[in-house]
Design brief:
- It is a single chain.
- By secondary structure, the protein is α+β, with helices and mostly antiparallel strands.
- The chain has two domains: about 15-80, Winged helix-like DNA-binding domain superfamily/Winged helix DNA-binding domain (Arc Repressor Mutant, subunit A); about 85-140, Dna Ligase, domain 1 (2-Layer Sandwich).
- The chain has helices spanning about 15-25, 35-45, 50-65, 105-115, 135; strands at about 35, 65-70, 75-80, 90, 100, 125-130.
- A hairpin with a 5-residue loop joins strand 2 and strand 3 (about 75-80).
- Helix 2 crosses helix 3 (about 50-65).
- The radius of gyration is 17 Å and the shape is flat.
- Residues about 1-10 have low confidence and may be disordered.
């Protein structure tokens, strides 16, 4: 999520069969996934949905703050259903495992930093990368 303020009300969206199928496919995975991989999984499962529809649905879900979006090492957008509320991520740079974290310290720091420079209506995205316990314990196996 990229904002410390509540999102502006978005226009009412039709809950289409395709969007519901995208949400269902996202619910079936705990990891971040690319639009292409999600589309392939959906097609393999017998879902008749186009790649453009998957991209459009993911964008709408992102706009509605229902999915988290992060960039993979190659810059590709990766998506995952998110928990409610503003949060940040710890991301393993080896296997990509991601943990959602909330931190009031980060919120205070971001607000203070913006105020020190005269910024208003500031938003932020925080992603901390490191090596998860599993990859640290077994280097080279991820």
């Amino acid at each position: 999520m990229s904002s410390t303020t509540a999102p502006a009300a978005s226009p009412a969206r039709r809950n289409t069969r395709q969007r519901a199928a995208v949400v269902a496919a996202l619910q079936a995975t705990e990891e971040f996934v690319s639009a292409q991989d999600l589309h392939a999984t959906m097609r393999e499962g017998g879902e008749r949905v186009g790649l453009a529809t998957v991209y459009r649905s993911l964008q709408q879900l992102s706009d509605d703050e229902r999915v988290d979006v992060r960039r993979g090492e190659d810059g590709e957008a990766l998506y995952r259903l998110c928990s409610t509320g503003h949060h940040h991520h710890l991301v393993c740079r080896v296997c990509g495992a991601t943990v959602e974290v909330e931190s009031s310290a980060v919120e205070r720091w971001a607000s203070r930093l913006a105020a020190e420079h005269g910024y208003t209506d500031a938003a932020h995205t925080v992603e901390v990368t490191g090596t998860c316990p599993r990859c640290s314990a077994h280097p080279g196996t991820a």
